[in-house]
Hints:
This protein has 424 residues and is of the alpha+beta class. The longest helix is centred in the middle third of the chain and has 21 residues, at 239-259. A hairpin with a 5-residue loop joins strand 20 (367-369) and strand 21. Helices cover 29% and strands 27% of the residues. The protein folds into four domains: 2-91, Rossmann fold, CATH 3.40.50.20; 125-180, ATP-grasp fold, A domain (Dna Ligase, domain 1, 2-Layer Sandwich); 191-318, D-amino Acid Aminotransferase, Chain A, domain 1 (2-Layer Sandwich); 327-423, Phosphoribosylglycinamide synthetase, C-terminal domain (Glycinamide Ribonucleotide Synthetase, Chain A, domain 4, Alpha-Beta Complex), CATH 3.90.600. Strands 12, 15, 18, 19, 22 and 23 form a six-stranded antiparallel β-sheet that branches. A five-stranded parallel β-sheet has the order 3-2-1-4-5, with helices on both faces. Strands 6-9-7-8 form a four-stranded antiparallel β-sheet, with helices on both faces. It binds adenosine monophosphate and glycine (GLY). Adenosine monophosphate (AMP) binds next to strand 7, strand 8, strand 9 and strand 17.
Amino acid sequence: xxxxxxxSGGREHAIAWAVRKxxxxxxxxxAPGNAGIAGIAECVNIGAMEFDRLASFAKExxxxxxxxxxxxPLVGGIVDVxxxxxxxxxxxxxxxxxxxxxxxxxxxxxxxYGIPTAGYSVxxxxxxxREALKSVSYxxxxxxxxxxxxxxxxxxxxxxxxxxxxxxxxxxxxxGSAGDRMVIEEFLEGREVSVLSFVDGKTVKPxxxxxxxxxxxxxxxxxxxxxxxxxxxxxxxxxxxxxxxREHIFQKTVDAMAAEGRPFxxxxxxxLILTSDGPKVLEYNARFGDPEAQVVLPRIENDLIDVIExxxxxxxxxxxxxxxxxxxxxxxxxxxxxxxxxxKGFPISGLxxxxxxDGEFVFQAGTAFDPEGRVVTNGGRVLAVTALAPTLKEARxxxxxxxxxxxxxxxxxxxxxxxxIDEA
Length: 424
Ligand code: AMP
Ligand code: GLY
């Protein structure tokens, strides 16, 4: 079988790595890919938003299955374009990807179907927002409706901050048309947990839980990022909480989407918060997380192609998802200054010291080849050093030791990924 993966980050490297283990797969293409993915797949220089070119490529090269890693093409309707061409593709249709593409849609869906989430209102103009802010308590959360690279969420401590946030999102249009509408949401407190799950339109099979570290600095300080590290499982996501979420959140969401005429096929990423009042949904994503995929996929024992094909064919019910007992932790090595301003183009050394059989992996994100063929930094999040071990603490020690072996000029990482493990 020939597989095409769409995307260029650490998540797509992890997907390609998992796909390569399938005995069914003879060839992997990745568009556009990166220097790490190039080690296991043929990278194709077509952008993730060039749907027609991608579909033509898939046809001309006899691609049997396309896996879409990124949110932008999914929300933009890549799956519909591929399906119209008779191509097999894993990911939600445009009508279903709105679960991530519009926060107003997802909040209204949760309200309509009684799925636990924070109280909220949706506003369509800055004036409407200022009016609504007269009757909220602080802190309050402002969310641009559309996709904003995970940066369209503002937590405002007081009215002055909230009014500045309204200006930023709805008047200055910092996030472009993502700010046409805005969600004003109740602030919730608790531990956050991510649960990625396979969905075939009616059945949902959750993958093991994970815990992200969104802030750039140690001690959860500094600006929000795409994620600086992750581990799986979360010790706070107990079997009781899991049972509750399966019944009241996961299955209800899948049923709600089907009832709305938007059956969801692909991966739903449930961003949850464990409040004193029970688990609630903070957000939905319509894809694997990055870097959640880097710690969850190494723990899945099934052939990933089998699970994905079952989703595409609507027979996920028959799949027994098997999860390794080992824990997994990844530390993102970034360029100093990320997510704001950073330099790139520095050679990376130590990448050849990793062996799958040692349970140590490097999933590359912002990397490229320079004219001499060396692997150099090419983005904010450069790569994720990932380790599997019997316990979370061992995985953490192993990942940090391995992270020392990878060097480049402006290497930056958090030193406290997994700090919550010590509080469990
Ligand atoms: P989101 O992109 O919706 O996941 O939001 C990004 C981050 O903002 C989340 O991971 C939380 O840390 C925080 N956040 C979002 N919504 C809320 C909320 N209602 N209460 C508290 N924190 C929130
Ligand atoms: N790591 C968070 C995300 O992928 O959205």
